[in-house]
Amino acid sequence: MSDAGDNTRKLQALDRELLWHPYAASPPAGEIYPVTSASGVRLRLADGRELIDGMASWWCAIHGYNHPVLNRAVQAQLEDMAHVMFGGLTHPPAIKLAQLLTRITPEPLQRVFFSDSGSVAVEVAMKMAIQYQYARGRGNKRKLVALRQGYHGDTFGAMSVCDPVTGMHHLFGDVLYPHFFVDAPDCPVDRECPESQMTQVADLLAEQGEQIAAVIVEPVVQGAGGMRFYSPDYLRKLRALCDAFDVLLIFDEIATGFGRTGKLFALQHADVTPDILCLGKALTGGYMTLAATLATEEITATISAGEGGAFMHGPTFMANPLACATAIASVELLLSQPWQREVQRIENALGNGLAPARELPQVAEVRTLGAIGVIELREPVDLASVQPRFVERGVWVRPFGKLVYCMPPYVMSDADLATLTGAMVEVVGQLPGG
Ligand SMILES: *Cc1c(COP(=O)(O)O)cnc(C)c1O
């Protein structure tokens, strides 16, 4: 232990001296745990401890870590080329991945724009919507409508459609473009969505439709903005409103895509097709950063025939071959397995495992959907003091605000799921307010 312990402390000291971590001060308030390797559903820490990973590295590592199929895909692509610019050049991994993505998403989504992160995929979607409206002579349609408690990324454009409160819009004031917000739907997943839930967005579209390019939502599950689930019926009604008021509909499935909610894409719960679709996170099985924005032929053709005759975006690492090859392997691996059964198995295990939390006085609500399990507390957790309690119990869970939640890799065994959910219930039960 002592060598490993020394090494851990050395890494922690250097980390505190040199690095920023996400959504943290630098150096951060809580302990940071050095990881030296990961395999299956386990993270191995520098001090030798192993943690069952309940987060799948923020929704990404759906097949677990160090997967032989994905490793082979990276190695094989590396032999050919790691990267090549995408301006004026193309390559088989980009073409094959685009074929795959257009095949598994709804038929009207026929064109793929690759980028390097989810936030950029959202920027691209917003830009496409605005450039499309401009190209068809609706240059006044420049605003978006987004849901409160939504999350779409951290770059300025994406931030401008995140929840204004949790996105801390007040800090940035007029450097953020003022888009429109409506209340998030409050209707359970298994029910219809009453018309009363639609009045705010319907009134807004009726009054301001002339200025509105698109509505952007995370279908069925709002992720980092609150881990909220809502009725797919809302999406059907929203689609009809967008059509009625000549407004595009953008679905951000960066968190929900690739099976997480029990359907391959959350839009399939509603059988609704957006005009633009954003994918990311689990796209490469958590191996590297890649995102995609898919659009209809009409949007593509209109932009291409418009002023300048081009869509003005092009990341340096656009369609990176290593990432595309890994994504192909990850999506094919998913589709080659009975993944629906596995996600259903996890949904059952999370439902059963987290149920005892319902009896706890600290808990406001417990909810599960697909491979997502959420304990919503009455009070926000103190992350710096709570995080070590999970690590002591051999699990990796990273709460935020009032939410203690998990979205495990789909390969997690029932025994590991029981350990994970048991630790979540136990730690929550020891919080103040019990
Ligand atoms: C994570 C996320 C993003 C941003 O993706 P990054 O890769 O972190 O830039 C956008 N939208 C949703 C719904 C997300 O969950």
Automatic annotation (TrEMBL):
Binding site for substrate: 58, 151, 281, 314, 398
Primary subcellular site in the record, as a coarse category: cytoplasm
InterPro entries: Aminotrans_3, Aminotrans_3_PPA_site, BioA, PyrdxlP-dep_Trfase, PyrdxlP-dep_Trfase_major, PyrdxlP-dep_Trfase_small
A Pfam entry, by short name: Aminotran_3
Reaction(s) catalysed (UniProt annotation): (8S)-8-amino-7-oxononanoate + S-adenosyl-L-methionine = S-adenosyl-4-methylsulfanyl-2-oxobutanoate + (7R,8S)-7,8-diammoniononanoate
Entry-annotated residues carrying N6-(pyridoxal phosphate)lysine: 281
UniProt subunit comment: Homodimer.
EC assignment: 2.6.1.62
Species this protein is from: Mangrovimicrobium sediminis
Pathway: Cofactor biosynthesis; biotin biosynthesis; 7,8-diaminononanoate from 8-amino-7-oxononanoate (SAM route): step 1/1
Cellular component annotations (GO), alphabetically ordered: cytoplasm
GO molecular-function terms, A-Z: adenosylmethionine-8-amino-7-oxononanoate transaminase activity; pyridoxal phosphate binding
Residues the UniProt record annotates as site (Participates in the substrate recognition with KAPA and in a stacking interaction with the adenine ring of SAM): 23
Positions contributing to pyridoxal 5'-phosphate binding: 118-119, 252, 315-316
Entries under PROSITE patterns matching the protein: AA_TRANSFER_CLASS_3
Keywords for the protein's UniProt record, in alphabetical order: Aminotransferase, Biotin biosynthesis, Cytoplasm, Pyridoxal phosphate, S-adenosyl-L-methionine, Transferase
Names of the cofactor(s): pyridoxal 5'-phosphate
Protein location: Cytoplasm
Top EC class, one word: transferase
HAMAP family named among the record's database cross-references: BioA
Domain of life: Bacteria
Gene label: bioA
Full protein name: Adenosylmethionine-8-amino-7-oxononanoate aminotransferase
Xref: Gene3D superfamilies: Aspartate Aminotransferase, domain 1, Type I PLP-dependent aspartate aminotransferase-like (Major domain)
